[in-house]
Structures are given as structure tokens and as C-alpha cells.
Prior knowledge:
The chain is of the alpha/beta class and 344 residues long.
Amino acid sequence: MNEMTPIKTTPKDWETDQEVRWCPGCGDYAILKAVQRTMPELGVKPENTVFISGIGCSSRFPYYMETYGFHTIHGRAPAVATGVKLANPDLDVWIVTGDGDALSIGGNHTMHLLRRNLDCQILLFNNEIYGLTKGQYSPTSRVGTRSPSTPFGSVDRSASPCSYALGSGARFIARGIDTHKNLPTVLKAAHAHKGASFVEIYQNCIVYNDDVFAPFTEKANASANQVWLENGEPILFAGGTKGIHLDRYDLKLVVVDVVDGKWQEAGVIVHDETNKGVAQMLIDMRLEDGFPMALGVIYQDPAPTFDSAVIEQNLAAARGKTPDLQALISKGQTWQVDKEPHPS
Length: 344
């Protein structure tokens, strides 16, 4: 069968026989189901797919996907993923990580994977807490977060995963919500992108950080506080009654009212996912400043991938040459040790 021919599978084909062991009500269950529902729509083979994780609640993920998988060490999933992709470029590589795993001990590895633009999908589950180790504050925890490690409230200014990814040179940045119906659409867009796709997924930790995202994820708040971006479409929310306008004098985004659907008259901008400057502004929008949370594909501007460049370089280096292992071993300085009589 031609490799380009889509493979027909069902969500069941992507489920393992392992008992899924997260806390009851954890958002990871919803993400797992979203991924398992999405894989058949990608038309890919389970045996050509690999999920790689580090350490944390999210990192149990490879056990539950009927694919190849590596449960690696804290923060090092990007390094393992790079080795896997270079060893077998035909594999479809997914990295599953958390806000602590990717941005704390793994921050340096994540940065280099993004700037190199390895062809893979990175799913960062952000619950703004260390859940596996019983609720310590994480790099994305908000100021004032009370936890076993910050009993009086965290004084750290939190990291923004998408802003970090953009600054690291990522060419695809998106956001989703664990239980939202649009998450599969985001996953499919990430998979279609050639290069490193960075997807931040807001994931509720029901035990240690419950409802931290409720101001924009709860059904009653969703319309007013979520804006789902679509390339080439006006940036509208609140049922189309509000939109995002770019003040070109002050170079900042502002919320404007839209009357009778006349978004052009209100000055609402059309989403251009290749505009890096506006992407940063969309990432920085905060509820406390009167903005909705930007979701969907925020930025996408494809570039040559690291793995394709390495493969091309290797082929060029080998062109016209005959493999000779002995010549390689003997290359450079060599010594021959002759056995001499042991001095008496």
C-alpha cells in the first residue's frame, strides 16, 4: 500500500488494554479521548506513530496509546524525540509534557527543539501546578497561588507557554481546552503542520488546582471570555457582538463592540496566522484586562525542518562514496601495540 494512502482505523485501534490511572475528573482523560478520536481522522498507522513523554501526570500518556512509546526522564522528552526522529524520519512523533516538565527542568530542551524545528507535535498540558508531586507551584502558577511549597502564596511571576514558544522560534503555536469540542480541530492542524507544532492545552487539575481556568472555560463564561481564531476570519467573540481591533497608533489590541454584524465598520481585524507581531499580542491578552482568551491556531509560518536538513546533509556527505568501516576506524592517528617481554 502506498504510504500516502490514508489508513482506516477507529478510536478503539488506538486504545491499549492498560487501566487509565488519573484522578477521577482529571482533564487528562478528556485529552486522551480527544487524541484517540483524532488519530483515525489523520489516516496514519499506529505502528508508525510514537508518543514520548517526560515525568508528570501527563507523562502516563504513552501507556494508553496503542503505538510505540517512551516514558523518559524529567524534561528530556525533546532530546529523546530528536533521536527518534533522526533515526527513523518516517515515524510520526508526538511529545506529551506538562507545564513543569517542559518549562522548568526541561525548559532548555524545549527551547532547542523549537528553534531547531524538529518535525513533531508537542502537547503541553497546562494545569498551572505540579500534580504528580502533590501540588507544589509550577512555572505557570499565578502570583498568589497557595501550595505546599508556597503556603503564603507564590510571589513568582508566571511563565506564558505560548509566549515562551514564540520567543524560542516556534513556527506553529496553538491553544486548546481539555474538554472543548474544538480540541480535535487544533490537534489536526498541528499534525498537518510540517515542523515543530506547539499546542498548549488548558487542563483542569481537580485535586490541587480545581477550576483555575473556570473564568473562561465554564459554559456560562465561554462566549464572553473565549475567542477561537480561524485564519482569514474576523476575530469575533461574545456571539459576534464583540471583536478585536488593532490600534495602529498605539500598536495594541482593543476590544470593540460590533453592531448588527458590521465588523468591518467596527474595525475588527482578520486573523492572519503568519503575523508574528499580532500573534504575540493575542497570546498576551488577559481576562483581567477585559480581553477574551485566544484559542485555536495563533501562529503558523512553516520553515525547513531540522530533521530534513540533517538527512539531506548526510546524503550529500555520502554521495559517491563506498562505505568502508575499517577506513573509518583507522582514520586519523592510530597506534599499534606490540607485545613485549615483561621485564624481570
